[in-house]
Amino acid sequence: MELSKCFYSVWLMLCCFTSCVFANSNVEIPVAKNGVIDLREQNLENKIPLKGEWLFYWNQLLDPKNIENGNAELVDFPYSWTDKKNGKSLPAFGYGTYSVKVILPKSRQSLKIAMPDVYSAYKLYVNGRLVGKNGKVSTVADNFIPYWEHKTIDVPGGADTLNLVLQVSNFTHRKAGIKKNIWIGNKDKVILDRKQTEAIDLLLTGCLIMGGLFFLGLYLMGNRDKPILLFALFSIVYSYRVAGTDNYVLHTILPDVSWDLMIRLEYLSLFLGISLFTLYTRYLYPGEVNKIIIWAIGSLCFGFSVASMIISPYYFSQLTNPFLIVMTSCLIYIPYVYIIAYKRKRPGAIYTLLSTIALMPVFAITLLNYWSFIPTFQLLCFVLYISFFFLQSLILSHRVSFDLKKSRIEAEEGLRAKSEFLSTMSHEIRTPLNAVIGMSHLLLKNTPRNDQKEQLDVMLFSANNLLSIVNDILDLNKIEAGKVTFERIEMDVASIAGNIVSGMQSAANDKGIGLMLHVDQRLNNKLLGDPTRLSQVMTNLVHNAIKFTNQGFVQVAVNLTVQTETFVTLTIEVKDTGIGISKDKQKIIFERFTQADSSTSRGFGGTGLGLSICKRILELQNSSLNVISNEGKGSTFYFVQTFEKSDKTLEHSKQEHLPTESDKPLSGVHILLVEDNLMNVLVAQRYLERWGATIEVALNGQEALDKLDVNRHKLILMDLHMPVMDGYKSSMQMRQNGVTLPIVALTANLPDEIEDRVFAAGIDDIVIKPFLPDELYRKVLYHISEK
């Protein structure tokens, strides 16, 4: 359907084009007869071509004074003497004189003559006076200088007859004489037409150059797609065809440039332009082209291009006719390729087909004008050229956007695969870590010998360190995927800071350094925020400070900067007397997997993720992590964050008093433990039994359904990933069966990943593996007491 619309549009275009041709051909234009052209009855408001029968003097350079003494013949002007006449043509190298008498109307306005370029130098006399010239006319090659430039010449005022004498010589080109019409008309009209011609040519040239530079920049800046490069080069090369040929606007702008250079560029742009466009098509649709045909066309055009650079203009200008055969073959084959691409639904093929359809009339007009059948129809060609290059730009834009879309989809799939991989690895690493950490805690509670306690501390430290690395990688992945969410709940910042310092005190003592805490006494309210993320940032900063400090102290400070009735701004800083950071390294330490020096990771360990994660977490909360440091003297990491006040003051905070383990608070409580990993069963069972609970184990969800006794069991601890039936389905089935017992999930997955599925299955709470004894103790005790 789209294709039929395209051809319908082209049919309308060709109809308009044909009507224009016939409209022009139906206008009666006077022509010269026997060397005289009578314009007395003509309205010279519009331009009139001075064509018809002119007198021609071969091998005679006659000035107006002795023109009557020459040996003349009548020729059909404009006349190139190398064209065949009566089956014969004159040699290209030579010279001749043209003359005609123009009879003008008696009452008329100021007139101008529009003089085109000739092959390849001329002098024009009007009523015996030299009024224009191009190059240097001569009877010998040594004194001859060629040049092509369009000129407009004033007609002498008051004259009713013009005697035109045109001297032409050629010793460089295969063609000789004059091929284009000389025009006469109203001065303002002639000037306006020339300005319009120059404006159209310059506008189109500018469009091609800017478009070519744009696509060249696109290619150089990273999109190394060959069609983009080839189209950019084609646009830049072909821009010379607009400004440097036909109307020769460029010759008017640069009148002192060598004709030899200009003629070589003219033919080079023609040959090389078609070669580049052919190669562009070859890489645009490699599956649709015949490589032999493409390389044949490209090679011939490239050969013509080389010839235009190394041999004389007389010889390479003779390549035009053979080249027309190559170009015609190209213009037939390329649309065929685009039609095949369209039928195969290649990306952007509809645009390539439309662009080719737009280009066909241009080449038809160019060829017919080259053979002097029709005028140039410059405005129509301008519109068609713009359409062609615009549609080609759409092809490349579509190609780039298609590649970007494809890359985005691949990147999203890669990110999804990475997230799934990290999630799976997290689960697989956390599961055995649960057993390692859990058994270490159990062994430490069994009053080991001092040497055993030291070994267990090392094992527990290493396991916690591995868990910290896994958590950092998962946090970074969530931040990059934009999946980080922040809670807005009540929190006690002073208590959080105190707990962090207490938890890190033993690490500081082991290194023999002080660990101090200062909390501003003006901080009297609980605040609304995310205690987990705040604790994560502060813990990371304190841990880093201790790790990089070998003597002195680490101080944690919570200072109140600004306080209003509803908001509090805190400056939280961690100061140390450690190794410090040089100024040139203070920016890179916040980058992923980066530390200030490669020796740092060897001496102190770590992945270099901690500070990057802290920085990103704070940025997502409209804050920033800053550092002040002097190498060898220590560092201060700080951030400023604003929180909303809670209604509760710190004095009203309830202290949590939990029963001790020795009290056996779970005595008489039957718990159903659903877990397929025997090591994790052992760890959880040992903990719960120490607290007095009675444990029954089910190895999968189906077995849990079979063993569950709502009259005996008070709590269900449910693993989520198990064979036969997983924890989600088992929990959902229990709720459908009317079971109201609290169900707590034991899982190695992160809460954000499973939260929705967990609560949809009717599970009440989550404990993340590897769990600390106190965490499991609090959760179990809470749900038992609620029950």
Provide structural commentary.
The chain has five domains: 31-193, Sandwich (Jelly Rolls), CATH 2.60.120.260; 201-407, Rhopdopsin 7-helix transmembrane proteins; 422-463; 493-652, Heat Shock Protein 90; 663-786, Response regulator (Rossmann fold, 3-Layer(aba) Sandwich). It is built from 20 helices and 23 strands. Strands 1, 3, 4, 5, 7, 8 and 10 form a seven-stranded mixed β-sheet that branches. Strands 12, 13, 14, 15, 16, 17 and 18 form a seven-stranded mixed β-sheet that branches. The protein has a five-stranded parallel β-sheet with strand order 20-19-21-22-23, sandwiched between helices. α13 (531-547) runs antiparallel to α15 (610-619). The chain is elongated and about 140 Å long.
Fold topology:
Layout lengths: L1 H25 L9 E3 L9 E2 L2 E7 L14 E5 L16 E10 L7 E5 L5 E6 L2 E6 L16 E4 L6 E10 L12 E4 H34 L5 H18 L5 H5 L5 H26 L6 H20 L2 H4 L3 H24 L5 H22 L7 H68 L4 H31 L8 E3 L1 H19 L2 E6 L5 E5 L1 H17 L5 E11 L3 E10 L21 H7 L5 H10 L5 E6 L3 E16 L20 E5 L3 H13 L3 E5 L2 H7 L5 E7 L7 H10 L6 E5 L3 H10 L4 E4 L4 H14 L1
Parallel strand pairs: 1-5, 13-15, 19-20, 19-21, 21-22, 22-23
Antiparallel strand pairs: 2-11, 3-4, 3-5, 5-10, 6-9, 6-11, 7-8, 7-10, 12-14, 14-18, 15-16, 16-18, 17-18
Helix pairs in contact: 1-9, 2-3, 2-10, 3-5, 5-6, 5-8, 6-8, 8-9, 9-10, 10-11, 10-16, 11-15, 12-13, 13-15, 17-18
What is the structure about, briefly put?
The protein has 787 residues and is α+β, with helices and mostly antiparallel strands. Helix content is 49%, strand content 18%. The strands form 4 sheets. Strands 1, 3, 4, 5, 7, 8 and 10 form a 7-stranded mixed β-sheet that branches. Strands 12, 13, 14, 15, 16, 17 and 18 form a 7-stranded mixed β-sheet that branches. A 5-stranded parallel β-sheet has the order 20-19-21-22-23, sandwiched between helices.
